[in-house]
Specification:
The complex is a heterodimer. By secondary structure, chain A is of the alpha/beta class. Helices cover 34% and strands 31% of the residues of chain A. The C terminus of chain A is likely disordered. Chain B contains 14 helices and 2 strands. Classes of the chains: A alpha/beta, B mainly alpha.
């Protein structure tokens, strides 16, 4: 009898498996659109609205191979106009055959015009929603964000994936290449730092397009105010330190050299000068290796090494200084000097923060570069072509 | 007169305390909003103050080794005042259960099941908790060790995974906030997660331990829990920096950012699971204590019959307690700490002093 009761009870529990498993908000894969990129653009018609473009990755169906190439693209672009992100999403969800799945979104691309207008009111959703993740990359498109999303690419066909892989490669060089939503927000919340985002542009023609990182957009508060070129971007990355593996080309009166920077570290020191202005010292430590060399005739051994490291030091210093001058002309604290001040000298910071813009424009930057040249590659000196051997 | 005949060992008692602290400590947003990058300091100060409180609890446990809190009140203040205090404490236990239940509901909704209505989550939790409570303290105690060890392991693993994202400059500038913020923060930490240990005064008669072991278990359990909380706060500050105080669950965001290659991303669900387990454990303890207190006031030994009605009460209480999450967190930062201090510190302290003057015959030892 007791056994029977137990069995009945056990059987009685089975319906609960179905009832309590909490799967009433399930979504099957074939009812979803996987969003791989979001683009926001300024709307031409009125200032309130923005154009929202979602890029949806289509699953591959290349098994047959008989289809004409280029007949169907790998992505779908969905567009709408709305005042905020969420309104736009709802609008798109209403009008589409499937539900948008946002956690796999790779990148948020802002159109240049929208970025110049200010974006704070547009991005609250990206922090608040459970579906949006903070490690989403943030970028500014040269021109329209939609163009980047809808570009017919040759390599990775989905531009969202293209960008995320590209940035992943770059972040091996330095963590400072990671311009995530998180970093953007964190800088936006500092009182003084300028948020930044890489500028992405479309290259190539028709269905043979590619994407390219073309410098950095510099924001002041939430408005884009200027940009750094691709070269300046690299030297900005150097200034922030912990760089592995990148190149620098140096010109010298005796020849030119390309160095592989194996490792580069930058330490910063904040000093307050007697006249009340700030002086920032960058102590740069770099291990470089000779990549390519031409010229430098007549130099050998020690002499050559000394000259080369001098050349490398000079060019690193020069480029960093130029970038800093650019930042000063934009009056944008891209180096987070304000934060360093706040952390290191909180008392002085209290006095400075009211007119930080003024203080920043008077900062003197002193860059001290130390280059170590441990190896020369497989050959030591450049190949010297003997003059008499010039037969053909 | 013990209502629940079950007994747990001293070790289980210790881990139960650790688990209890860990559970509320992992939701650190109640201090991070107040003290920002100095939250670690506040946790440290809070722990030190809590040790003071623990000392009071320890005295009570030693002086009245086989009486629970409500019996202690009746013994020291007499029947009438004792009963009134008992009712007040019953309200306190119920409120704690309801608050933690709503926390669990909110958290589950935030992390896992977005569209499931709150009632369903809460009901399911309370049904399972009711089974545990009916099983008695010895059943609850058995799980404490496993839960708290798993929690520590997950905290360590997740910390290792975000090590490369840490920036220790985020702790600077230290000690720059107005003093009152530190006091407020310390008060919150002491009153909300740590001081709730007062509920263990309802459980200690069921623990097999000598006086020496009481001290040891109480303090080691507490320190184990507090260290976990401390680690979590340090990690969150180091990873998130100035943006930490925006989020409702900073740890979840920290783990969102943890990416160990492509395969080890999205590990925040690990954290969500452990937090749900720990919160569940805490709710079971609070629920159990409420039921025991209720049985005591109603003078019945058949506490198991009260389990479901108490559960129903807790569910409705939690649904109506706060109109919104915003009201919840505001009161958590501003009013609750003051109210709780009375229950957690002042009344036990007064009790121990009164008991001393009454020259209770049992209090001769240590």
């Amino acid at each position: 009898m007791k056994k029977l009761v137990k069995i009945v009870l056990l059987l009685g529990c089975f319906p609960f498996l179905l009832l309590l498993s909490g799967c009433w908000d399930n979504h099957e894969l074939d009812t979803l659109f996987i969003v791989t990129g979001i683009g926001l653009d300024k709307s031409e018609e009125n200032n309130e609205d923005m154009n929202i473009a979602l890029q949806i990755g289509k699953p591959h169906s290349e098994s047959g191979g008989s289809e004409e190439s280029g007949a169907s693209s790998a992505t779908i672009i969905m567009e709408t106009k709305a005042k905020t992100m969420l309104e736009g999403l709802n609008e798109l969800n209403r009008n589409s055959s499937r539900t948008m799945l946002l956690p796999h979104n790779q990148v948020l691309i802002l159109g240049e015009d929208l970025a110049k207008e200010g974006i704070e009111s547009r991005i609250d959703w990206f922090l608040r929603s459970q579906e949006a993740r903070l490690e989403v990359l943030i970028m500014v498109a040269e021109g329209e964000a939609k163009e980047v999303l809808s570009a017919q690419l040759q390599q990775d066909q989905i531009s969202g994936m293209y960008i995320s892989r590209m940035m992943q490669d770059l972040s091996r060089i330095s963590d400072n290449y990671e311009f995530r939503m998180f970093d953007f927000m964190s800088r936006l919340r500092d009182e003084t730092s300028s948020p930044m985002a890489p500028i992405i542009s479309v290259t190539g023609e028709d269905d043979k397009k590619g994407l390219k990182i073309d410098g950095l957009a510099v924001f002041k508060n939430d408005k884009m105010i200027g940009q750094l070129t691709a070269d300046e971007m690299i030297s900005y990355i150097w200034s922030m330190g912990s760089v592995k593996r990148c190149n620098i080309t140096s010109e010298h009166e005796k020849g030119s050299a390309v160095f592989n920077i194996e490792k580069l570290n930058t330490k910063r020191k904040m000093e307050i000068k007697s006249d009340g202005n700030l002086k920032v010292v960058f102590e740069v430590d770099a291990n470089v290796e000779i990549g390519e060399l031409s010229g430098f005739d007549g130099l050998q051994g020690q002499e050559l090494a000394a000259t080369l490291s001098q050349v490398a030091e000079d060019s690193i210093q020069q480029r960093m200084q130029d970038t800093f001058k650019k930042a000063q002309s934009l009056n944008a604290d891209i180096y987070e000097f304000g934060v360093s001040m706040k952390r290191r000298h909180p008392d002085e910071w209290e006095k400075m923060k009211e007119n930080w813009d003024e203080v920043f424009s008077h900062i003197e930057l002193d860059i001290q570069v130390k280059v170590k040249l441990p190896t020369t590659g497989k050959i030591v000196e450049p190949l010297e072509i003997g003059e008499g051997n010039d037969e053909n | 007169m013990r209502i629940d005949k079950g007994r747990i060992s001293g070790k289980q008692f210790m881990f139960a305390i650790a688990c209890f602290i860990q559970s509320s400590g992992l939701l650190t947003s109640f201090v991070s909003g107040v003290t920002k990058q100095d939250s670690w300091l506040v946790i440290l100060l809070g722990s030190i103050f809590s040790l003071l409180m623990l000392w009071v609890y320890r005295r009570l446990m030693i002086v009245f080794p086989d009486k629970n809190l409500l019996e202690i009140f009746e013994e020291t203040y007499g029947k009438v005042i004792g009963k009134i205090l008992g009712v007040l404490y019953l309200f306190f236990f119920f409120t704690l259960s309801a608050l933690n239940l709503i926390d669990l509901g909110n958290f589950t909704k935030l992390t896992a099941t977005r569209e499931t209505p709150m009632v369903v989550l809460i009901l399911m939790c309370i049904v399972v908790a009711a089974i545990a409570v009916r099983g008695g303290i010895d059943l609850v105690g058995k799980y404490s060790t496993a839960f708290s060890v798993v929690a520590v392991v997950i905290v360590i693993i997740s910390t290792l995974l975000v090590v490369y994202q840490m920036d220790f400059e985020n702790f600077l500038p230290s000690f720059r906030l107005p003093i009152i913020k530190y006091i407020q923060g310390t008060h919150i930490v002491t009153a909300i997660p740590f001081g709730e240990l007062v509920v263990f005064l309802m459980i200690h008669p069921n623990v097999k331990q000598s006086n020496k072991e009481i001290t040891k278990n109480l303090f080691i359990g507490f320190i184990l829990g507090a260290i976990t909380v401390f680690m979590v706060v340090l990690r969150d500050i180091a990873v998130l920096g100035n943006i930490m105080d925006v989020f409702t669950v900073p740890s979840l965001v920290t783990l969102h950012l943890a990416n160990f290659g492509v395969s080890m991303s999205r590990i925040e669900i690990l954290f969500a699971i452990i937090l749900i387990i720990l919160l569940f454990f805490k709710i079971v303890i609070l629920y159990y204590v409420s039921v025991i207190a209720m049985a005591h006031l109603f003078k019945t030994k058949a506490y198991k019959r009260l389990v479901l009605s108490a559960g129903a009460f807790i569910v409705f209480y939690s649904m109506t307690l706060y109109p919104s999450g915003i009201a919840h967190s505001t009161s958590g930062q501003e009013t609750i700490p003051f109210l709780w201090t009375v229950y957690e510190f002042i009344i036990p302290l007064v009790t121990i002093i009164v008991a001393k003057f009454k020259k209770n015959p049992k209090k001769q030892e240590a």
